């Protein structure tokens, strides 16, 4: 979504909803590289939503890890920088959160990664709740889940590492073991 997509027709439709008694209209968009993934474009979009159409900029999701979407995706580091850069320009109630919808975890604010290995583009996340399916799972709140940055966003050393890595199951397992060790070290440093 780009600011130019907030047309007078969008504003008219929102006005009809508000006049009909809908309390507020909120936007949940997707951060897309080349469309709205820079501070100026995202702020223009937020102002167009808020001032031009009375739509609350609520969430912006990082693009999911789905086939054929790599060119649209941004790294967690880029999303964190984007969130940082838009802070202070909009009223607090209208400052959208940029979230990562981590597989098996759900929506997490981009700054909630437990650990983040930026060279290889692997961020690690934990759940803070149990679903009914996990009621008996003692590991549900301590297990780490991996979100992978798009390879094109990585430094050359990280891109080379991915080109040379062939056993993705072993890569994933090593990443989880490494994250657990670094998380344990971080916790020990805090004690």
Question: Can you offer a commentary on this structure?
Answer:
- It is a single chain.
- By secondary structure, the chain is an alpha/beta fold.
- It folds into two domains: 1-111, TIM Barrel (Alpha-Beta Barrel); 113-186, no CATH class.
- 37% of the residues lie in helices and 20% in strands.
- β1 (25-31), α2 and β2 form a beta-alpha-beta unit.
- The longest helix is centred in the last third of the chain and has 23 residues, at 168-190.
- It is globular and about 55 Å long.
- The protein starts with 7 loop residues before the first helix and ends with a helix.
Distance between the termini: 45 Å
Report strand order across the widest sheet. 1-2-3-4
Summing up helix and strand content along with how strands pair, one would put the structural category as alpha/beta
Q: Please, how many helices?
A: 5
Radius of gyration: 19 Å
CATH-level-4 superfamily name of the largest domain: Aldolase class I
CATH fold label of the largest domain: TIM Barrel
Number of strands: 7
What is the overall pLDDT average? Answer: 88
Total of domains: 2
Helix content: 25-40%
Q: Could you name the CATH class of the largest domain?
A: Alpha Beta
How is the main sheet built? Answer: 4 strands, mixed
Low-confidence stretches: 183-191
- Form type: globular
């Amino acid at each position: 979504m780009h600011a130019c997509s907030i047309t007078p027709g969008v504003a008219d439709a929102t006005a009809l909803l508000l006049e009909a008694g809908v309390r507020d209209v909120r936007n949940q968009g997707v951060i897309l590289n080349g469309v709205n993934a820079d501070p100026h474009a995202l702020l223009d979009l937020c102002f167009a939503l808020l001032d031009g159409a009375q739509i609350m900029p609520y969430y912006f999701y990082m693009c999911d890890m789905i086939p054929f979407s790599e060119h649209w995706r941004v790294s967690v580091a880029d999303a964190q920088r984007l969130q940082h850069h838009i802070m202070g320009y909009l009223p607090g109630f209208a400052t959208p959160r940029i979230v990562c919808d981590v597989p098996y975890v759900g929506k997490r604010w981009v700054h909630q990664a437990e650990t983040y290995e930026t060279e290889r583009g692997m961020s690690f996340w934990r759940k803070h709740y149990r679903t009914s399916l996990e009621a008996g799972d003692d590991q549900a709140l301590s297990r780490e889940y991996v979100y992978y940055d798009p390879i094109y966003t990585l430094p050359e050393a990280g891109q080379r590492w991915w080109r040379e890595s062939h056993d993705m199951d072993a890569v994933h397992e090593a990443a989880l073991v490494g994250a657990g060790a670094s998380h344990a070290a971080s916790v020990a440093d805090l004690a």
